[in-house]
Amino acid sequence: MAEELVLDTAIRDWVLIPLSVVMVLIGVLRYFVSKLMRSPAASPSPDPKLVREGSVIYSSSLPPIPSRSVPRQVVIRARNLRTNVQFIPAKAFKARKAYYTNEENGLLHVPKEDAQKAQAAMFSDPNMAMDMMKKNLSMIVPQTLTFAWVNFFFSGFVAAKIPFPLTQRFRGMLQNGIDLSTVDVSYVSSRSWYFLNLFGLRGLFSLILGEENATDDAQKMMQMGGGFGFNPTMSLGAEKDSLVIIQHDWALPKMERHAEDVLRKLLKK
Amino acid sequence: MAAAGGVSSDDVPILQAENLTSNVKSIYYSRTFLSIIGGVVAGIWGFTGLMGFVFYFLIMMVASIGLLAKSKFSVQTYFDSWNRILIEGVFGGLMSFVLFWSYPLMMI
After folding, report:
1. Is A39 domain-assigned?
2. How many structural domains is chain A composed of?
C-alpha cells in the first residue's frame, strides 16, 4: 500500500464542490426541461380511468391496424383476468380464456403478417418517434455536456479518496484518466468522481424531485418493454402463454368460511 | 401506508396492486433517505473501511425493523412478500451511501 497522499484543499474547493453542485443543478434543470417538453406533447391520451379499467375503445374510425394503445389495453385486460382469476367460476374463466387465446380470432392471437404490419406502422408513426427522441435527448445531452465539461476542466488528477480499500481490479473504474499504478486504489480521479456522482445522486433526485423523476425514465422504458416503445406482438404473445398455463381455482366456495372467520374475529373484539 | 390487502385463512391472496406499489414506493423513499443521512453520519463519525458498510447494513436492519413496526407486524397485510421489507432498495441505496459517506470525510 502506498503512503498517504495529501490532497490539496484547493482541489476540494475548486473541483469537488463545484462538480457536485453542478451535477445536482443539472439534474434539477433536466427534470424541469423534460417536464416542459413533455407537457405540450401530451397527446389526448385516453381517460386514465378507462385505461386502468382496461376497457378498450373500439371506435368505428379505428384503422384496420390496431393503434398503439389498443394492444396494450388488451394486455392489461388479460392481465386483470389473470390476477383476478379466482373470483370467477370455472365456466366463465374457460369462456374468457377461449375469447383471449383462441388460435383463430382470439384477442391475444396475432397473425404473422399483421404483426409485421403493426410493427411497421409503429415505426413510421412520427409522433411516437419524436416523443422517444425528446426523451432520449433530454437524457443524453446534459450527460454528454457534463462529461465533456468535466473532461475538459478537471481531467488527469486525483480528486478524492473514498473511505474504503478496494482491490486492484477497480483501478480502471476509479482512476479513470490517471495512469499511475502506485497510487492506492481508494483514490479517485475526477472523471470517476463524476461517475460516482452520476449514480449516487439518483437517490437524492428521487427524494427532492418527487416520483416522476426524469432519471427514472430509463427504468420505466425498460419496464414498458424495450427502447422503441412497446412491442405489441411480443407482449401479446407472452400474455397469451401465461393465460394458457394458468391454473384456475375458484375462491368463492371458500369465501363463506372466510366470511365466518372474519365475523367471528369481529365478535371477539 | 395503505393496506394492500388481507389474506384469508386459505391461501387466497387479495392484493390491490396500486396500494402495493405505493407501499413499495414509500419503502424505497425511506430507504433512500436513510442511506443518504446514514452516509453523512458515517462520514462525520469518521468510519472507514469495512466499518462503514457494517454501519450501513445495521441502518438497513433497523429500517427493516421500523418498517415491520409500521406495518404492525403483519407483513402480509401490506406487502406480498417478506423480501419487500427486508431487501427492497438496500442495494440501490448503497451507491448514495458511498457518495455521501465520502463527502464529509473530504470536507474535514
Report:
1. yes
2. 1
